[in-house]
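Instructor's aside before we start: the two examples that follow are unrelated to each other. I chose them only because their records fit on one page, so don't look for a connection. First example below.
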Amino acid sequence: MVKAGKVRYLGASSMWAWQFAKLQHAAALHGWTRFISMQDQYSLTQREEEREMFGLLADEGEGSIPWSPLNAGRNARPWGMQGTTRAGSNPGTDMFGNPLWLESDKAIVDAVERIAAGRGVSMAQVALAWVLRNPVVSSVLSGATKPHHLDDAVAALDLHLTGDEVKALEAPYVPRTPTYFA
């Protein structure tokens, strides 16, 4: 598709690092176009890409374009606060039975809320600023459905978290199974 001029670049989405490495290896062996990015789930409450995928991307010079950087809005509003109708209809697990949220996520969301209040910014800005600070992240898929969502995403670009804020946001994280791929 790239060589035919139909697309400019190739990206992959939501897989294990070993699977992505095999795709890149096959492309190199056959003279095919390599992928330049990975579209993966990454947020304060879903950080499993840090284990292997982000190291692979950094080593190979590819970028990450995270989807659900606010974890379906859960990281953008106080814990337990009613979200949108769409968010309320989300199941508690993915199609493979892996939980989308853990009770331990509350401590992370509480930290986002404290930092946002202390900074006088929205929780979404804090959560997005944390995702964007990772050097392998090229951009995010914000899933904006309202104009203020775009305002928060743009404002997050200029929000620089302190080392203490980053520690407060990261400390409560509990490892989990990645979701939406087997």
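Example two begins here.
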Amino acid sequence: MKKLFPILLVLLLVLSAATVTAKGQQEGAQGEQQAQEAAEPAVDVTELAKDYFDEYPQGGYIIKEEMLLEKLQNGEDMFVIDIRQPDAYAEAHVTGAVNMPWGPDFAQYLASIPQSGQVYLYCYSGQTAGQTVALLNLAGIPVKSVRYGFNYGFSKVEGADEFIDTTEVAVPSANNEIAPAVQETVDAYYKEFEELAGTPFANNIISSENAKKILDAEDDSVQFVDIRRKEDYDQGHIETAVNIPYGADMHEMFGSLPADKKLIVNCYSGQTAGQTVAILKVIGYDAASLKGGMGTPKNEPMGWVTEGYPVVQ
């Protein structure tokens, strides 16, 4: 027994030292993690949303359909995204375009989209592309939408047929880093579509017909917002609509909007309204864009005026 005592004492000392070492390593790892978190401040998604207008690029967030064709003709290096549904993409799309269908699961594609270079995106008419462009730029992806989309824009340009085909292009691997807070925000944005399905505000878009019903009902829970230029607003706008012209620093006027009401936003064709709606929703407002906006010759038969609904001055 006397011989065993020194051995037991040595074992106890070894175990004690190992415990102290393990505890020290654990505390060291926790300290290192805390230091790293302190060095990398949390991403403020609301501030990123405001930056969308603070950092408004020259020419805005839309590329004209003719300009996209010119870039294709010149063989410029670019990444093109088609967010229409797979059946529409399979029927015809811009040569080289990757299909990332708009819907509740769209956020899964964020890490697969280049974070530099020329990135362009289109939908059918430009309206859902507008929402997506705002969210992708918020995620650090410098993308612009194609004016009037594929159906009303690019496919109508003379010479575009040369750059329209049916060859499927694979989605790239997810190699880019997206800040967790941004990923969660974008994911939640698209997941909400499941709740909106079947309502007048599906896809954060409302038809002129349903908007007119709300107007006629004098629904006090809704505020119409016109983001066209003031001179166009003055010539004729939806009754009760307030004017906040689209463009750089427009977010500075968002504080004048009622936070407790549903906002119905209109522009000319729905494209910049789509962008505005996405940013409004990210910073806490409840908003939807008017389908087709007020209407233009290029996006007929959509649009409030095109469909024959009244305006006031």
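The longest helix spans residues 4-39.
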